[in-house]
């Protein structure tokens, strides 16, 4: 899936802090692991949970979600380069035979450059959402797969570094996905998320609510 190579013009909400990445791509080819939304569906996608802690539902692509919180209990969010005016928490695919906790650390580093973070909590079940029909069709062609959607294992991490550590160019192993970042309240995060992720985000914030108060 292609990723926009120029920073989209966007007037961010009046949040605590905004950093803008300078998109200078390292001169090497890379294989992208992450799902990038291809278009915005009109209705909200469905979200469901699986009671199995170790096994995601069959037919869904395994993925980790990262709820990174600051000492003031704000949540890290970044704006997508490919979908204007939408923000999200970091996430990414789990490699084959990779432990989800290892995937969380890797994805956080690849997407944000952050290494100063401790895993505090793990969602007790997988959260799933279905791909909208047009997205699923495009992914089937590109990946040669037939995933229904994504099954996400969510983790809450506490940021222990300084804001200057955040680098949206990541660690140089992947193409940048984000243009700006901010610390957001739970409600700000849901309000600024793309529509088909809002149900998942609401559930994630409910699961981790005791850590956000």
TrEMBL record:
Signal peptide: none annotated. It holds the Pfam family NUDIX. CDD domains: NUDIX_Ap4A_hydrolase_plant_like. GO terms for molecular function: metal ion binding; pyrophosphatase activity. Keywords: Hydrolase, Magnesium, Manganese, Metal-binding. Gene3D superfamilies: Nucleoside Triphosphate Pyrophosphohydrolase. Its cofactor is Mn(2+). PROSITE patterns: NUDIX, NUDIX_BOX. Residues 59-206 form the Nudix hydrolase domain. Belongs to the Nudix hydrolase family. This is Nudix hydrolase 26, chloroplastic.
């Amino acid at each position: 899936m292609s990723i926009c190579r120029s920073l989209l013009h966007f007037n961010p909400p009046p949040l605590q802090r905004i950093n803008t990445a300078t998109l200078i791509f390292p001169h090497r080819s890379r294989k992208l692991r992450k799902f990038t939304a291809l278009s915005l569906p009109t209705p909200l996608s469905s979200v469901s949970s699986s009671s199995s802690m170790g096994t995601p539902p069959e037919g869904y692509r395994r993925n980790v979600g990262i709820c990174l919180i600051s000492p003031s209990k704000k949540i890290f969010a970044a704006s997508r380069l490919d979908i204007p005016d939408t923000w999200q928490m970091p996430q990414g695919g789990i490699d084959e035979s990779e432990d989800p906790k290892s995937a969380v650390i890797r994805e956080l580093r690849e997407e944000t450059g952050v290494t100063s973070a401790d895993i505090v909590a793990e969602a007790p079940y997988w959260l799933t959402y279905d791909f909208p029909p047009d997205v699923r069709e495009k992914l089937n062609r590109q990946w040669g797969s037939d995933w229904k959607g994504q099954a996400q294992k969510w983790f809450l991490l506490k940021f222990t570094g300084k804001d200057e550590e955040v680098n949206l160019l990541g660690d140089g192993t992947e193409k940048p996905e984000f243009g700006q970042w901010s610390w957001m309240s739970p409600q700000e995060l849901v309000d600024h998320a793309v529509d088909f992720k809002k149900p998942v985000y609401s559930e994630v914030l409910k699961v981790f609510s005791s850590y956000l108060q």
